[in-house]
């Protein structure tokens, strides 16, 4: 596979993806997720049943919108450092990451009402997505290659790396994906001023990412921020905005620091979030993927997609 040539398939109304998986499971379904990790739910029938119920809600949104659906594995924390905290060694992590793809394929086969379904492996940052790490590019490449290889061997359509806060980790992930021959997208998070947690601008990191990797990332997203926080970092007239194909937004206007300290879930205002998302989408000509992040659930994503599509 020539991963540098892989493109998100064209579909007339774009692609639905899910919402804030972890916050939904914790606050709405009463499920304990140590270290904010959802992947251990794959280990038993009860956990898989909860996950399947969750994903099927978004399939109904996609079917109603006549859009495609990206099913993204619950593996954001399934890397070596976070896995070790939860008692998972290297072999167990390879198994659970591989099984996540196989299981998601089985769910996808039953979604006959959806225009098209892609299965994507999800990876997260090595550390806390809200706090920039000091990883060098080579270190990030070596670290993330193992999880990416598990997804490639299991036959994922592509991988998305979410909640990245530094250029170096993004470059390392893209290079690791090329090593194991799987398409990859990268998603940055921003603070309330539209800048990454390390102070970089979206224009800086997207242009630098493409320069460092030969535009090998399939596309770019922004996640885990309210649309009002992302908007200050967007220049609708700049060419780099065409690299942004996806948004997964937070329900809350809170900063990352405030969210870290919050003891209850801020679900925001659903219709207001949908309106803010659509306003931001108007400045992103290549937008195709729309979903939610912290604090959102299927109600928020359904409102975003109600009688609307991100495809201009």
From TrEMBL:
Top-level taxon of origin: Bacteria
Any one Gene Ontology BP term: methylation
Residue ranges occupied by any Hcy-binding domain in the UniProt entry: 3-308
Keyword vocabulary terms for this entry: Metal-binding, Methyltransferase, Transferase, Zinc
Binding, Zn(2+): 224, 293-294
Listed cofactors: Zn(2+)
Protein name: Homocysteine S-methyltransferase
UniProt source species: Gordonia crocea
